[in-house]
Design goal:
By secondary structure, the protein is α/β, with parallel strands linked by helices. Helices cover 58% and strands 9% of the residues. It has one domain: Rossmann fold, CATH 3.40.50.1010.
Length: 137
């Protein structure tokens, strides 16, 4: 079975001081299966890493290595999310008070009927309300 991988879990995996056993378990599962993401996921992860370069949490070499490591994982961009599912994400965002960005992860999980790996509290609450299995905590 596959899963939807939120950027919050990916970032927790990258930063060892944030990686919990649940996060490590998600990534063991990602290695065995496939993780689905909306296209914005790559931008979110890269932006967070770049912001931490600016804040001097780490250097550009760490950022680049993290992106290279993520690129090796079996991660698939959900091609239907952009042309067809954006309205569904809007509806979910409105129903649960989420950003459309966060709702895109939940929309994929609902449509594909797969678990969602996220650390975002609002997104977890919305997913519970929609009956989506949660991973990551």
């Amino acid at each position: 079975m596959s899963l939807v991988l939120d950027s919050s879990v990916a970032l927790a995996w990258i930063y060892a001081d944030e990686a919990t056993e649940a996060v490590l378990n998600v990534f063991e599962r990602v290695h065995r299966e496939v993780a689905w993401i909306p296209a914005l996921w790559r931008w979110e992860v890269a932006n967070a890493l770049q912001m931490n370069v600016r804040r001097e949490r780490h250097g550009a070499a760490f950022r680049d290595e993290a992106l290279s490591n993520l690129a090796c994982l079996p991660i698939k961009v959900d091609a239907r999310a952009e042309p067809e599912a954006w309205l569904g994400a809007l509806v979910i965002a409105e129903r649960h008070g989420l950003t459309v960005y966060d709702a895109s992860y939940l929309e994929i999980a609902l449509r594909l009927k797969i678990p969602l790996a996220t650390l975002d509290r609002e997104l977890r609450t919305a997913a519970k309300g929609e009956g989506v299995e949660l991973l990551g905590m």
